[in-house]
Amino acid sequence: MAPVPAPSEAAPRPPAPRPDALREIRVASVPAGHVYVRHVHAADGSDGVALLPDPRPNGAPSTSQRWWPPVMLDPAWVRGHHDDFDVYHLHFGFDAQSPRQLAELVGELRRHGKPLVQTVHDLRNPHHPDRAAHDAALDVLVPAADCLITLTPGAAHEISARWGRTAHVLPHPHVVEEPELSGSRAPRTEFVIGVHAKSLRPNMAPLPVIRALAGIAGQLPDTRLRVDIHTDTHDPGARAHAPEVVAGLAELAAAGRLDLRVHDYFDDDALWAYLSSLDLSVLPYTFGTHSGWLEACYDLGTAVAVPDCGYYAEQRPCHLYRHGPDGLDVRSLDVAVRQAHAHRPAPRANPRARAGERDALAAAHRTLYERCLT
Prior knowledge:
By secondary structure, the protein is α/β, with parallel strands linked by helices. The protein folds into two domains: about 25-175 and about 355-374, Rossmann fold, CATH 3.40.50; about 180-340, Rossmann fold, CATH 3.40.50.2000. Helices cover about 35% and strands about 15% of the residues. The chain has helices at about 35-40, 75-80, 100-110, 130-145, 155-165, 205-215, 245-255, 270-275, 290-300, 330-340, 350-374, and strands at about 25-30, 50, 85-90, 115-120, 145-150, 170, 190-195, 225-230, 260-265, 280, 305, 320, 325, 325-330. The strands form three sheets. It has a six-stranded parallel sheet with strand order 2-1-3-4-5-6, with helices on both faces. It has a six-stranded parallel sheet with strand order 9-8-7-10-11-12, sandwiched between helices. Strands 13-14 form a two-stranded antiparallel sheet. Helix 7 (about 245-255) links the parallel strand 8 (about 225-230) and strand 9 (about 260-265). Helix 6 runs parallel beside helix 7 and helix 6 (about 205-215) crosses helix 10 (about 330-340). The chain is globular, with a radius of gyration of 24 Å.
C-alpha cells in the first residue's frame, strides 16, 4: 500500500468540485422535443440534465421529428429501458391511454424504482369535447406522481382541491427563440385584430367571437379584423370539416367585414411572422387551462384577449373577456378590444428576463429531480 503523505508534503489534492460540475440526471421526458420541454432546461446543458431522445413511433419516417404517440408511455418500453434513465417526467401525449394502461405504466416505474414527475399542463384537455376521459387519466397520474408541477397558482389550487396534492408553480418559459425574440416590430398605422381558428379544436367556438369582433372592429378607427383557418376545415373528407363555420366566415368576408386567410399549418417562421403582424390576438376558447400561444404573443409583443375559463389570465399580462360553454359575453369582449386598442404598444417579454427565467426554471427542475432521487 502506498504511504499516506504527511500534511507537510506537497501531495496533490483533488480539485474542488466546480458548482457547474453536476452529476448527470437522465430524464425520460414525455416528450423531449416539445418546445416547452426544451425551454425548461438549460440550452447549454449546464443544469446537468440529459433528456432521452424521443423514440420514433411506428410508421414515422427516419427524418421525422414526430413524437406522438409517445413510445415511452408503453410499460414494455420502461421494462426494456429502465437502466437508461433516472427520472420519468410526463408532460403531454397521454390522451389515448386508458386509466388501466396508465396504472400499468405507474406500476412498471414503481417496480424499477423510477420516480414519476408530472407537469400538469391541462386540467381540462382542449382536444376532448367531454372531460371524463382526461379526468380519469389525471385521477391515476396525479395521486401517483412523486412530484407535481404546474404553471399557475390557480391550477395549483385546483390540484389541491381535487386531489389534496401540492404542485410546484413554475411559469411557462419563452416559446420564441432568438433572433425573433429580440427582433423589432414593423411600424404600422392600422390596428389589426386576429383570430386563428386553426383546425377547430373542440374547445373553440370561433364564429360567435368573430361575428362580435366584426362589429367591434367596424366601430374603431383604422382597425382590421383578420381571420385565419386551416384548409382541412374546408375539406368534406377531413375530420376537421366544418361547413357551418366555413359558410359563416365566407359570408362575413364577402361583406368586407374581415380579411379571411385559408391555408395549411404555419411552420414556426411563418407563425412568428403572423403573430408579429397582429396588434391583438383573440383566443376563442370555451375551456382549457394554459396556453403556449399566449406565451408566443408575449414574446413578440402582441396583445392577447383571453377567455375567463381556465387559467390563461394568470400566465402573462392580457385582456380578459367572458366566454365559456354557456356562450359569449359580447360586452366584455368589446371592453377587452378597446383596452388593447387604447394601450399600445402591448407589454412584451424582455429577452434578458426570459433568459434568466429559463435559467431559473432549469435550476428548479434540477432541484426537484434531485429531491425525487433522494
